[in-house]
Specification:
The chain is mostly helical. The chain is 55% helix and 0% strand.
Length: 139
């Protein structure tokens, strides 16, 4: 399980600065306290204004749910948000584009057909041929 990192204050400030810039890119006026950014963003994400306030002040580690909502809403890579926020270390996550672990065990012919979107009579033919190619073994 990934470990949360203990961000020093400098890292918290760096995250806060980076996030403010990302919000500006999405037309949120984070520089004007009267702009209502906390209320607006909280309503759009379905979280409290106080959660947004803590996030924008760099207080504490943001909740994973909040980071996920931000990722979707602002079209920011979740991996980048998790790392920059200090929730996980970069080494705890696979690199972008890295292959994922293969499934455990072998697939049955039926599971392979389902995964390939083969249905009906074609599925029956596919599974029969796979079994025949495997030497008649029933997997």
């Amino acid at each position: 399980m990934p470990k949360e990192t203990n961000r020093p204050d400098a890292d918290a400030q760096a995250f806060r600065t980076w996030l403010a810039e990302e919000l500006r890119k999405s037309d949120y006026d984070v520089d004007d306290p009267r702009a209502g950014v906390q209320t607006r963003l909280g309503a759009e994400l379905g979280v409290s204004q106080s959660s947004i306030s803590r996030l924008l002040r760099g207080q504490g580690k943001p909740d994973i749910g909040l980071l996920t909502a931000l990722s979707r809403h602002l079209a920011i890579d979740l991996r980048e948000l998790l790392i920059r926020s200090g929730r996980v270390a970069e080494t705890d996550l696979p690199a972008p584009g890295a292959p994922t672990a293969p499934p455990r065990g072998s697939l049955t012919p039926e599971e392979a057909a389902d995964g390939l979107g083969i249905t009906g009579e074609d599925k029956d033919l596919f599974t029969a041929w796979v079994r025949r190619l495997r030497g008649g073994a029933s997997h």
